[in-house]
């Protein structure tokens, strides 16, 4: 299994706003670091979790092992909570069973021993009230200025609707609480997959089918790490266009969009002389795709000339494909001097077109809408000076070096020749 982390997914260095003529760039959310990252793991402990079909082990035992490893590897400063559903009621009264959800570890700094002990006692028991558990998990995480993340692990669809879990996800997204729900499916069931895709899609999260213990553990760790990286700046939602002319104008920040299979989406970024554009993109593969894949990020001029590109491709299993690029504005004084701040401000910015393309194909039966989650990071910084080469190629310095090298080469060649001749005569 190849788990690729998106590289350079979080460049949140929001420097001075770029001043342009015409419409102002879209501003990504810029918020102070006021809270630690908060994540709640929501685990299905319904009766079906007793099935022994993951590496010859029960689904619940695989989930418990994954939770233990995630707790051990929890990033410093991350606050974690654990909620379960279908874990206590053993009867057949559906009304009572569909209220069966509890928070067994409160959201906060984690006592690793306590968290592991709480998870170790779980036994597959009851119904599957996913919708209710999601609503309660959102309350567990509370509100605030930073993004929160729920990671839902289940092997079955909700058996208790209403509330329908997809409608709950839409309800949570509509509240504007910056809540992202990522879903992990433990059973190869089409109904479950569609429901989990809907939950993730409504909140800007991702869906992953985990069919082994390693896949489950690796994906949960990845999602918890992502919460650490993105909680202080929830990506701004934008919509790329099919051409550069009317594409959204972006300031430095982190943005989110959706892209369908084999699509091209365009954006614009103003870059002034003496500045460098740095951009990266990650596409989360939240549904089954063919094994040959690729993502391309290009920077072009407004007339279509390509300035630079970044690409990533592969043929193994992956959850995220990422690419990045850097480009410096070339409008500089003819004498090679670095432009002054006053001169830089006076010169109009160059509009750089960014286009995100993917070479991804859905597997048979895979839903193609909505598009796959795209995270685009844009930064504009002062240009990095190119490293100067050693000044050895000018005038007498080069001549002296060549002369010394020639003398040493001749001396070594002469000594070797005399030794070889003397040895040949003796023989």
TrEMBL record:
Annotated VWFA domain residues: 38-227
Entry-linked PROSITE patterns: VWFA
Pfam families: VWA_2
Organism: Micromonospora rosaria
UniProt keyword annotations, A-Z: Membrane, Signal, Transmembrane, Transmembrane helix
Membrane-traversing stretches: 396-421
Signal peptide: 1-28
Name of the protein this chain belongs to: Alpha-1-antitrypsin
Membrane is among the record's keywords: yes
The UniProt record lists the keyword Transmembrane: yes
């Amino acid at each position: 299994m190849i788990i690729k982390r998106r590289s350079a997914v979080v460049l949140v260095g929001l420097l001075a706003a770029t001043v342009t003529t015409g419409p102002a760039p879209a501003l990504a959310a810029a918020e102070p670091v006021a809270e630690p990252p908060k994540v709640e793991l929501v685990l299905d402990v319904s009766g079906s979790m007793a099935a022994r079909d993951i590496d010859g082990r029960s689904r619940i035992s695989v989930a418990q092992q994954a939770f233990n490893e995630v707790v051990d590897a929890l990033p410093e400063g991350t606050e974690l909570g654990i909620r379960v559903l279908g874990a206590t009621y053993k009867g057949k009264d559906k009304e009572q069973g569909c209220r069966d959800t509890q928070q067994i570890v409160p959201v906060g700094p984690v006592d690793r021993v306590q968290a592991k002990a709480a998870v170790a006692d779980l036994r597959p028991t009851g119904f599957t009230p996913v919708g209710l558990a999601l609503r309660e998990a959102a309350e567990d995480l509370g509100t605030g200025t930073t993004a929160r993340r729920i990671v839902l692990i289940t092997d079955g669809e909700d058996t208790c609707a209403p509330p329908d879990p997809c409608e709950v996800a839409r309800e949570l997204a509509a509240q504007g609480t910056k809540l992202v729900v990522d879903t992990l499916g433990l059973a190869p069931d089409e109904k479950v997959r569609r429901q989990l895709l809907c939950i993730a899609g409504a909140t800007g999260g991702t869906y992953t089918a985990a069919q082994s213990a390693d896949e489950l553990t690796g994906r949960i760790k990845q999602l918890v790490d992502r919460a650490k990286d993105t909680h202080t700046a929830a990506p701004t939602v934008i919509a790329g266009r099919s051409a550069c002319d009317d594409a959204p104008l972006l300031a430095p920040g982190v943005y989110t969009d959706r892209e369908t299979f084999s699509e091209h989406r365009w954006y614009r970024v103003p870059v002034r002389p003496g500045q460098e554009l740095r951009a990266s993109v990650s596409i989360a593969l939240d549904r089954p795709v063919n094994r040959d894949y690729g993502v391309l990020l290009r920077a072009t001029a407004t007339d279509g000339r390509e300035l630079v590109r970044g690409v990533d491709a592969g043929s193994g299993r992956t959850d995220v494909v990422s690419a990045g690029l850097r480009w410096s504005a070339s409008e500089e004084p003819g004498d090679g001097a670095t432009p002054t701040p006053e001169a830089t401000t006076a010169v109009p910015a160059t509009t750089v077109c960014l286009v995100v393309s993917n070479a991804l194909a859905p597997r048979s039966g895979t839903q193609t809408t909505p598009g796959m989650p795209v995270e685009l990071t844009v930064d504009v910084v002062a240009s990095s000076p190119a490293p100067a080469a050693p000044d050895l190629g000018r005038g007498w310095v080069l001549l002296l070096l060549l002369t010394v090298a020639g003398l040493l080469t001749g001396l070594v060649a002469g000594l070797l020749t005399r030794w070889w001749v003397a040895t040949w005569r003796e023989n």
